[in-house]
Predict the structure of TatD-related deoxyribonuclease.
Amino acid sequence: MWIDTHCHLDASEFDADREHVATAARGAGVGRIVIPAIGRQNFATVRELAHRFEGGAYALGIHPLFTPSAQDGDLELLRAEIEASLDDPRFVGIGEIGLDYFIDGLDDARQQFFYNGQLEIAREFDLPVICHVRKSQDQVIKGLRRHQIHRGIAHAFNGSFQQAQAYIDQGMHLGFGGNLTFERARQIRRLAEQLPFDALVVETDAPDIPPSWIYKQRNSPEQIPGIGAGLAQLRGMAVDETALGTTANALAALPRLALSSA
Ligand SMILES: [Zn+2]
């Protein structure tokens, strides 16, 4: 069994065939799909989707790219939604949160306000975080340190070995997806090949970041075994061993995944 630790199954790209996409993933051996939220506008949707499909799971959070439309009160709403979700075995953590210094025009103080506010909530409820880390490796880990967060995933990780080690030392896992299937993605492939295996989880970020064999097409969670096979090849591991290992790693990163069955 594989786990897709990051899939935006609620995205409009899946409106026409969401049921089919979830069934195909399951048929391909993807037993769990983690659906992170992006803001108050999709909290109910990701929860509903996680319950609609076998193996579904969800996280609640305010994504850095959606902070321009978020209001201060959304933090209090998120806190209440999280408190109400603690009894829900399909709820696995806080996400997608983080900082993005790649996209122009985002207000840094606004991003920081929501990121830090959500880290406080993670600390309060002792929940793991799923982090968006784009050109913000040092700033995101600074927040994790300050709020003493020791569990979660730095999703679509793309940094230096030194930065990767800092996340691992903090107790975080690193998410790898379609990028590792491109020969030209040398740094990501080096990281996936050489970092301690225990630190790695696989993800699609579907509908984004398609692997090489569906370049520029819609990505979907059924691609996880292919991405996992790419990881296995880089590491010189058997594919089965890679599936078992990354599944165990995902459970370590998001322990509440063990509360509901696949
Ligand atoms: Zn995402």
Observations:
- Residues 251 and 258 are 7 Å apart (CA to CA).
- The longest strand covers residues 91-100.
- The pocket of zinc ion is lined by residues 6, 8, 36, 96, 205 (CB under 6 Å).
- The first helix runs from residue 18 to 27.
